[in-house]
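forwarding from the other thread:

> can someone predict this with cobalt (II) ion?

sure thing
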Amino acid sequence: MDRYLGKGDHNMKNRIKKVKIGRNSPCPCGSGKKYKNCCLNASKKVLTLKQEYKRKYDIRLKEPEEIEGIRKCGVLLLDIMDKVSSMIKPGITTNDINTIVHEETIKAKAVPAPLNYHGFPKSVCTSVNEVICHGIPGNRVLNDGDIVNVDITPILNGFYADANKTFFVGNPTKDGKKIVGVARESLKRAIEVVRPGARLGDIGWAIQHYAEGQGCSVVREFVGHGVGLDFHEQPQVLHFGKRGKGIELVPGMVFTIEPMINLGTRKLHILDDKWTAVTNDNALSAQFEQTLAVTETGCESLTPFEL
Ligand code: MF3
Ligand code: CO
Ligand code: CO
């Protein structure tokens, strides 16, 4: 039976005849099979996973060549991080860290992503003690017992890798050991969760459950993020949440996990420089970050270091 769909159109010439083909009718292609067993599926637009994640979530799933580009950038990042590690000692300033990171990045024909990023004035973030993140390198002298987070993001051949570590300056204090240990273990436990079929909420839960169980608090105002073709891409990766909730992880997703863990309150304020995030009680905060790619079977760190 033909069905005529042209309501309201009185110009016979422009009327369009649309034929509704029943699922059980003979397929119009002439195969002799039922339509539902033949061309029906081909006529439905089947979205690839890549198209679906782009449309639904604005997430760019990466091709193997792109992951290789990010991996190479990660190798450079870790090389710079090692150079930083060997220079950290009482008496240096955070500016000294900036100088090393900037020069090593340029030497490798890469670009330091933080420099001029939304007006950030330096090439690396250095966050000391009560500073949670986005500390601006300057004249602050590192003292024995301090902790300092160094967050490095080079751009190599257009690809971004993003990672950070918190270092002890000289001899660690009891509080320093505690908060750095909990932050390190939080990232480790979060990475163990990452595989296809898991959800973003599983990552947040793993961090929150562990860190709060240790009597520490989890910062909520800053999150992990998609990364690779740009500095900050979708999705946002919360460091707290509920198991089984949130977007499903699929191969080709590349994102950071970067929990900021506080010894006291999770509440923070931003200094007048518009960047430096500081704990409201001035208690210690520590962080570790890696860039991860979801694989067919689990995940690969593109900035791998021992946790
Ligand atoms: N590297 C930080 C992150 O992990 C972002 C720093 S933005 C900057 O996302 F402008 F402060 F560099
Ligand atoms: Co990051
Ligand atoms: Co970072």
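The CA atoms of residues 178 and 263 lie 8 Å apart. thats all i got for now
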